Amino acid sequence: MREEEVEVAIKVVVVGNGAVGKSSMIQRYCKGIFTRDYKKTIGVDFLERQIEVDGEDVRLMLWDTAGQEEFDAITKAYYRGAQACVLAFSTVDRESFEAIELWKRKVEDEVGDIAMVLVQNKIDLIDDAVVHTRETEELAKKLRLRFYPTSVKENLNVEEVFRYLAEKYIDQLNSVVEEKVSPQKIGQDLMHNDVKNHNSDPHGRQVISLQPSKRRANKKKPFTTSVYCMLCNPLVKVGPVLSFLCGTLRSQ
Ligand SMILES: Nc1nc2c(ncn2[C@@H]2O[C@H](COP(=O)(O)OP(=O)(O)OP(=O)(O)O)[C@@H](O)[C@H]2O)c(=O)[nH]1
Fold first, then answer.
1. Lowest-confidence region among 32-41, 152-161, 201-210
2. pLDDT (0 to 100) of residue 4
């Protein structure tokens, strides 16, 4: 695999009670439209959009999940593999606010600790609000989440929500890659002859546990700093992902 063929693709799930505006948010973000009609999502739906973060193409795959409990069994299956999540509630629906912690748990039960953001939608209806801003801020603080008030109708803050998640995920990805493939760490592993400890498949071969990021050619700035391939040739400079692959090929 060539380094240029690697791109970042992020699976984002949007969760929250029924009618808070999940489908509308995804439609607004991916298609630039807003409709007043309410059509309950049956199970799950999916749209995608490509954006640029730090000069790199990032593909966001947005999974719209049904808010009704009756679909829980189906929707949960689609949380798997998600790298980011929007927890949404509505300004005019108190129950949807009170359900946020439950939604967070449901997602974490399936995928663990991933990039998340708290979204209070329908902020255009603030005059009829049943949730105080103070309460939302307290919840965000308690759950340690960034909070965005949005109006899908007025196209307020929708772009910001998804950009924040993409940046947060990439930050996490970079710190994991740096931790896993720092030259010092590889050197230490070689000295202790335990390179296979990085991550092994059932046959003891090295595998990459990170979601691969696809990177396109001629980009301004890579997400991760390059490292030297200590396994094949310490003089060959390669990206961390390739460095791992070299190790994989060598151990096969
Ligand atoms: N005023 C206002 N209405 C909104 C906003 N966002 C969505 N709506 C409306 O809220 C209703 C429900 O929106 P949906 O996007 O279908 O809600 P959902 O969360 O996907 O609902 P489920 O599919 O049942 O889970 C629709 O009538 C939308 O037009 C907003 O920002 N402001």
1. 201-210
2. 52
Q: Answer for the pair 180, 241: CB distance below 8 angstroms, yes or no.
A: no
For position 181, what pLDDT does the model report?
Answer: 61
Take residue 42 and report the two structure tokens written for it.
């049956």
CA distances from 143 to 2, 173, 178 (A): 40, 21, 27
> For residue 65, which atom of ligand 1 is closest to its CA?
25
Question: CA 22 to CA 41: how far, in whole Å?
Answer: 9
- With a 6 Å cutoff on the Cβ, whether 91 touches ligand 1 is no
Question: Ligand 1 centroid vs 56 CA: distance in angstroms?
Answer: 32
**63 φ/ψ angles, rounded to the nearest 5 degrees:** -100, 120
The single residue listed with the structure tokens 């929707």 is 75
SS3 189: helix
> Does residue 224 line the site of ligand 1, with CB under 6 A?
no
**CA neighbor of 83 nearest in space, from 180, 177, 179, 166:** 166
Question: Does ligand 1 have an atom closer than 6 angstroms to the CB of 44?
Answer: no
Task: Specify the higher pLDDT residue, 215 or 18.
Answer: 18
Round to whole Å and give the CA distance between 23 and 56: 27
CA–centroid distance, residue 21 to ligand 1 (Å): 3
For ligand 1, whether the C-beta of 240 sits within 6 Å is: no
